[in-house]
Design goal:
Distance between the termini: 45 Å
Pfam family, one: NADHdh
Helix content: 55-70%
InterPro entries: ComplexI_Subunit1, NADH_UbQ_OxRdtase_su1/FPO
Number of strands: 0
Order of helices and strands: HHHHHHHHHHHH
Shape: globular
Subcellular location: Membrane
Number of domains: 1
Keywords: Membrane, Transmembrane, Transmembrane helix
Membrane topology: Multi-pass membrane protein
Largest sheet: none
Number of helices: 12
Length: 329
């Protein structure tokens, strides 16, 4: 009976998370971006719910790619990796100690990040049309000149994001680890049930600030949106996804917002997502607050250049290290 209850709890939490995540992009766009910019904005259901439905009914286009099936499968893999993160942090998974640990959470987050590199490197078209650069029409062909595509620029930036940009988030994740002296989620949650939420400590406050910066970087939101250059029509490695595969992109972003919020509530408040407990309301509340704060900051922020991006990320990383050191004091 306990196993059946656990399965029901996991499935119920996933369904609730999915339903909530559909509205988060609309809350971000409608109630923050639009209000700050003094415009009406889209309906709250448009970015996260209606847009995916619309794209599911679009005609499927075979992309110009050396591996078209893998290229189209990448948004689905991204969504699945985020789903598994949510499953990992659910308390029903804690008996599987090796599975429910920070190693699993960080590994799955890294999978989500590295997929951007594959997205950019496997796309060989511009707006679904094959168009090599430079031009190869008669009289314009340049021998021994490397042909490049817009998405390949995003591949380079995705590597920078993985190698450097995501440091603040991962450093912040280790603040609860060092306080609880354990990499297992069960121990981190149990520590906070005894000593109180980590968020209400000096190290926790610093870690939360660093986590929020990493939250924005991982979501590629302004001012940390190095994946979205103007040369890529503001879409970066996601430029060429069409029809149902673009729908998965929209769904993945909303779901990632919710999952990162639940990671925060689990590690810094000791409240993992569980539909069988009232704490799920805290998870939902944090999932609403974080994108609102992100939207406010991005609405008033410039777009960082590399010269601005790297110092800010380095400063946030140093602050994260200070937070970890503070856990030993």
């Amino acid at each position: 009976m306990t196993v059946i209850n656990s399965i029901i709890a996991v499935i119920g939490t996933l369904i609730l998370a999915f339903l909530v995540s559909l509205w988060l992009p609309g809350i971000e766009r409608k109630f923050v971006h639009a209000r700050i910019q003094q415009r009406v904005g889209p309906p709250i259901s448009s970015p996260g719910l209606m847009a995916p439905i619309k794209f599911f009914f679009k005609e499927t286009i075979k992309p110009a790619s050396p591996m078209p099936r893998l290229y189209n499968a990448l948004p689905i893999i991204s969504l699945l990796s985020v789903v598994f993160i949510l499953i990992v942090i659910m308390p029903q998974m804690y008996p599987l100690a090796a599975f429910a640990s920070m190693v699993a959470v960080i590994g799955l987050l890294k999978i989500e990040e590295v997929l951007y590199m594959f997205m950019g490197s496997l796309s060989k078209s511009v707006l679904s049309l094959r168009m090599p650069f430079p031009d190869i029409v008669k009289g314009a062909k340049h021998p021994e000149v490397k042909r490049s595509f817009l998405e390949e620029l995003s591949t380079v930036r995705a590597f920078r994001l993985i190698a450097f940009g995501s440091f603040p988030l991962y450093i912040a994740l280790f603040v609860p680890v060092t306080m609880a002296r354990s990499i297992y989620l069960q121990d981190i949650v149990a520590y906070q049930h005894i000593h109180g939420p980590i968020l209400f400590t000096v190290a926790g406050v610093l870690g939360a600030i660093v986590f929020f910066i990493g939250f924005m970087v991982l979501l590629n939101e302004y001012p940390f949106s190095i994946l979205k250059a103007k040369a890529d029509v503001i879409e970066g490695p996601l430029l060429e996804y069409a029809s149902k595969y673009r729908a998965y992109v929209y769904i993945s972003r909303g779901f990632l917002i919710f999952v990162l919020a639940t990671v925060f509530t689990t590690l810094f408040l000791g409240m993992p997502p569980n539909i069988m407990s009232w704490t799920i309301l805290v998870n939902i509340l944090v999932a609403i607050i974080l994108p609102i704060l992100m939207a406010v900051l991005s609405a008033f922020s410039p777009i960082f250049t590399n010269k601005q991006f790297y110092p800010v990320v380095a400063g946030a990383s140093i602050l994260g290290v200070v937070a970890i050191v503070a856990t030993f004091l």
